[in-house]
Specification:
about 180 residues; Rossmann fold; three-stranded mixed β-sheet; alpha/beta
């Protein structure tokens, strides 16, 4: 089944094959990128409560890591497991390896199951998303947070899927405390 508005892996490979820059150039272009300033508090909360934190993304590992380096400490970075597509850069050639052979190149719902299996527990799954590629993952969540007004939130609204819209990670941090207190 095709998901409207989502590019196929073949199309994504074609898009990225047109990139003609060194990794150093990419690093320089992204030097001012930033993450939600409240995200580090969520990571700290997970560390303090020994809650596994998996980042499940349709993005590219090296770009995700670079982006997170701009707002997280080494301890925070080391605590997270990142499940994403892989990027290799050789000179000016960018090569993508998809996480799996699913239709979208990364079955995020399967990655959530890997997180659950990796920690050999039956945790409550909290999923935080924004895009249409998050739909399958949203179905695996016990608690679903969708970035207000973006694709996942709109899809949930249209399909009657229960979620909590959020604007920034300060709301997520507050809700994690409330969820934890209720368990």
């Amino acid at each position: 089944m095709a998901v409207s508005g989502t590019a196929s892996p073949k199309f994504i490979v074609q898009e990225w094959s047109g990139v003609n820059m060194t990794w150093e150039t990419a690093v320089n272009l992204l030097k001012d990128s930033s993450i939600d300033p409240h995200f580090s508090g969520v990571v700290d909360w997970c560390i303090a409560h020994s809650v596994p934190l998996g980042i499940v993304s349709a993005g590219l590992d090296k770009l995700i890591g670079l982006h997170f380096e701009h707002g997280l400490t080494k301890e925070q970075l080391a605590y997270m497991d990142i499940f994403s597509n892989k990027l290799e850069v050789a000179g000016t050639k960018w090569v993508i390896t998809f996480a799996d052979d699913s239709e979208l190149g990364h079955d995020k719902a399967a990655s959530i199951k890997k997180v659950v299996d990796r920690y050999k527990v039956a945790p409550r799954v909290v999923f935080i998303g924004d895009g249409i590629s998050d739909v399958a993952s949203a179905k695996e969540a016990d608690y679903l947070f969708a970035k207000r007004g973006l694709d996942l939130d709109n899809w949930c609204e249209k399909n009657g899927v229960k979620r909590e819209p959020f604007d920034d990670f300060s709301y997520i941090a507050k809700r994690l405390e409330e969820i934890n207190a209720s368990l």
